[in-house]
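Input sequence (650 aa), recorded before submission:
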Amino acid sequence: MIALRQVALQRGTQTLLEEAELTLHAGHKAGIVGPNGAGKSSLFGLLLGTLAPDRGEIEMSGGQRIAHMAQEVDALDRPIVDYVLDGDRELRQTEAALEEARRQGDANREAELHGHIEALDGYSAPSRAAQLLIGLGFGQADLSRPLSAFSGGWRMRANLARTLFMPSDLLLLDEPTNHLDLDALLWLEQWLMRYPGTLLLISHDRDFLDAVCDHIVHFDRRRLVLYRGNYSTFERTRAEKLALQQAEAAKQQARREEIERFVARFKAKASKARQAQSRLKMLERMGDIAVAHADSPFHFTIPSSDKTSHPLLVLDQARLGYRDESGAEKAQLDEVKLTILPGQRIGLLGPNGAGKSTLIKSLTGELPLLAGQRIPGEHLAVGYFAQHQLEGLDMTTTPFMHVQRLSPTASDQAIRTFLGGFGFQGDDAFGEVGRFSGGEKARLALALVAWRKPNLLLLDEPTNHLDLEMREALTEALAAFEGTVILVSHDRHLLRATVDEFWRVADHRVEPFDGDLEDYRAWLKARLEGERREARADKAERQTESAAPKEDRKASRRAAAELREKLRPLKKARDRAEQALEQAQAELTAVEEALGEAELYTDPARKAELTERLARQGELKSRLETLEAEWLAAEEALEAMEAELLESGA
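Predicted structure, token format:
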């Protein structure tokens, strides 16, 4: 049990807690929420003993093993799998004692220590550490690389893996998802749901909190308020409380009207795709969300450029990637053919490292194409946000000066009003950027994007470092934005609320994804299971070859060749069906783009052309259904043959 009794805590001149009361029982999974600077990380300091309360007392049941994720990671020369194993100190100490016993020839002590390692589940430790790292996005080849070979974000992933590996009864995690992509976040979500101990989780990801937590601890005016249920339940309960307060009534009504307009905007589109239907369900509960965040200091809009182009931007037969220091190509995406139109709202999905950020940088023009063409529209105005842009801010000046440099003729009041919506109110607009937190810098970078009035917004993980209040404000601003949005984010709430369609970036291709986030989770799971089956099959084949006598190896290779011959025609049939499917989809996309031309419906001279195109659209849709059935049949036949040959031992 964890109990805070009448706790007061002050840091510098700021009072964080005052007469705070909190009781959590073993096995609770509690999300810690509140605005940045409220004292969430300081609460962890109190539990870890690195901070002492100014008044009151903290009670914790004895013997609890606490695992806490450090925020800083040194660039060590140890392989990352060893770095993770070092998290189990008792196991490492026992292994060191075993080595000493071996050097001294003490057989009895060796036997005793082997028993202790078995009790600690130490013999499975390397595989458990590897599973954690792979789940968080590392490749098999990365496990032997030193920690110093990875960037700061990947070191934080290794640090998270080390924390999860530590034997613990109480797990304290402070923003564990900040450096994760969607795939790794989904994996971590499942891991934490199975964690048997007590969990305290600081996070600004509402879907993550919903999935993992059964209690919410809210920092509310220097008190701690405990709510039963997940984050959505907390929002509804808090909304009911706020609705009873007369002082909030005006704000509440205004926010409800905003949300009603928000929902109305997308109702007409809700029938066009499954993700739109799931999104509409989410929007229907936005009234409660708005009330729960009625006291947020963040309210802003992102104005769009007065002019636009049709299309805004085209990539034609593009190859995307980098060139290394020697000039050699490192291609990530091939044959990319995209047409970006006004008003599109696109979420990018794909496995870690597949090329989502590469696609975003190529669309901005920041990353030159390796081949093909990037054709911008005449009035294209790009607004681009990525984490590295925080480093490009002038640390010696102020938010006010940043905006004034962009628009020297803008009035002081207009700039201050604009910055106030992003939380830079009063003197905060004149604070030195170098003293800002990561969240404040991210807010400023978003403000600078919004000030430029783009008609194409390209956002690469915009919610990192943003608290829940700012995330809600960004969600509403993006929903009201009249331009085109292309978004990479691990925040599923933001994706559901602001995009109408998804593109999947995987296997060196960019293609439309016909489904919602739940469909993507299922696709990802199936993909990972397929990779594991292939890895097991490869391992079994290597073991069989290494164990076989020399005279049998020729026969094994012959059998493998025969197997490939049997599978080849089925693979060809599958590939032909897939190619035909892609061609039909591309033609349908071109026809539907042509049908988007307004004059086609208003010009009587083009009536025959309209009829022809509509007929062709119907033909292609019918052909797509037929081709999908053929591809599925070929895929199933291939899988059946593989299973049959595997069972027969061929």
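Checked by second reader. The first strand starts at residue 2 and ends at 11.
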